């Protein structure tokens, strides 16, 4: 199933793995790197070409021009020379703090999180204490405590580093706690690797994008904080930085004298450098969470939808999907659903089978418009034929209409949906929530009665309404989700591998329940699975999907006895001796005569 959840950092494997940890080229990254490169070069090489920044001339304040492209200060010192040396000083402190704070946060966050136990508790306590101490006042106190003549750039860097690592350590700890439970980390531990090696080889590479982002953040924090400290007269005494420049400009009443050339350049360099680092940070964020990437906007000429069919051709049809196409607009666009046409009749179970990756989930999401960028519907239509005779063009519904349509006319049960139940809310509250949203006029008593009714329908004791999800078995939770999908008496239910996570016996029980409910209530089901033999037992009609296309479509019996497409034959052959007589197990609950109960 398409993973729409939050992205996690995948373990690096081989060259491709390392390449995936580099930021993708984007205008943001280009501008960010450009700004950083220009300012870094200016700081590195500029001092070699400009004169002495401390030389006092008998010029006083002079505006930019001639010999002094950025003018002079009150004491006749060249602003350009000061700017070049100050940029170097600020970069020096920024880099020192970036490295120190990143090392500290890695030590307390990663080592603590991985080792656990007392070490983690002690490290965590220390990080928390550092976190609640207000940063700037502490920096001011510590800086003021160190005598001015000993307050070099190293001292200032150390002070800033010890006040700026704790938040990053918390983030790294949380990520490490999650990583240490991953199978490949457990495998390395079981294989007898030493803890430092597991951290270095298995854990650290996964945290590199995060560490890089923390480093960038620390550099920005350091440059800005140092500027603040220097502005207050508490900065490094032996070096000039952009902050000291601003401090002297302030002391020389540059603003009042309208000597903009004195304070604007250092302010601008700080702002542009921060801006450059922030832009690079965006690109690093995109490695950690690819979902943040910009989706390239493509011309939508081919995406013009055809209007939905004006009228249904068959009174029995409840859903018509006509030539639906869905494309994932990524670097190399993925045409996941190609011109798919399906009709679903009232009360029928239509099975959609196909191997993993053929586009089943994408289709299920698109039919209910639950797809998210980069997925885009590039053509076709979805029409819902309501009981009352109205035809609804699903792709044309406005957001409000769509909200009302979903769940009450067409509900969806996704693979692993049982895990979607909120663990801290009772089953009753979660069921009632749906009714409160969609049936605001319903009385409390009626809501309760309906919740009990649907639970009974799916074979769960209504006394379980007061339970929390963790108090139910996986099968019961899945039944609760199906009950939730039934609450508003929908005419169509889309079920995407609803029982895959369950053991065979529970799976069979639920499938029998679905068939019984379909017979009792009469809703139609679009049942999606990779398990074709299962559909042979369950579905009335079957559509077989391959590479985004429907390659075969017909009554289940026909698909079973006379599969026309070679792919269908291959799918059937891949489950040779496991398939009993069609329908024997699910429909009657008896094992198949061939002894092939699946
Ligand atoms: N976010 C995405 N970006 C790019 N391609 C994607 C994205 N999500 C899915 N795809 C691609 O779309 C195609 C269809 O995926 P989909 O998840 O719909 O398949 P599926 O048949 O439901 O598979 P499964 O049974 O394993 O869930 C696959 O080739 C997949 O790689």
Ends apart, CA distance between termini: 23 Å
Q: Using the alpha-carbon principal axes, give the shape.
A: elongated
Question: Which cofactor or ligand species appear?
Answer: adenosine-5'-triphosphate
CATH topology of the domain at 23-291: MetI-like fold
| Strand adjacency order, main sheet | 6-7-8-3-9-10
Give the overall average pLDDT. 79
- The oligomeric state is single chain
Strand content: 5-15%
CATH class placement of the domain at 23-291: Mainly Alpha
**Biggest β-sheet: count, sense, barrel?**
6 strands, mixed
Roughly how much helix do the residues carry, as a percent range?
40-55%
Are there runs of 5+ residues with pLDDT below 50, and where? 1-17, 298-312, 577-598
CATH superfamily of the domain at 23-291: MetI-like
Structural class: alpha/beta
Question: Helical element count?
Answer: 21
Cα-atom radius of gyration: 33 Å
* Total DSSP E strands: 10
Architecture of the domain at 23-291 in CATH? Answer: Orthogonal Bundle
Domain ABC transporter: 321-572
Subcellular location: Cell membrane; Membrane
Keywords: ATP-binding, Cell inner membrane, Cell membrane, Membrane, Nucleotide-binding, Translocase, Transmembrane, Transmembrane helix, Transport
Membrane topology: Multi-pass membrane protein; Peripheral membrane protein
Architecture overview:
- Keywords: ATP-binding, Cell inner membrane, Cell membrane, Membrane, Nucleotide-binding, Translocase, Transmembrane, Transmembrane helix, Transport.
- Belongs to the ABC transporter superfamily.
- Pfam families: ABC_tran (PF00005), BPD_transp_1 (PF00528), oligo_HPY (PF08352).
- By secondary structure, the chain is of the alpha/beta class.
- Among the domains are: 23-291, MetI-like (MetI-like fold, Orthogonal Bundle); 319-398 and 526-593, Rossmann fold.
- Helix content is 50%, strand content 12%.
- Helix 17 links the parallel strand 7 (492-496) and strand 8.
- Helix 3 (79-115) runs parallel beside helix 11 and helix 9 (195-231) runs antiparallel to helix 11 (260-288).
- The two termini are 23 Å apart.
- The structure holds adenosine-5'-triphosphate (ATP).
- Residues 1-2, 328, 330, 334, 336, 354, 356-362, 374, 530 line the site of adenosine-5'-triphosphate.
- The site of adenosine-5'-triphosphate (ATP) has 16 residues, from strand 2 and helix 12.
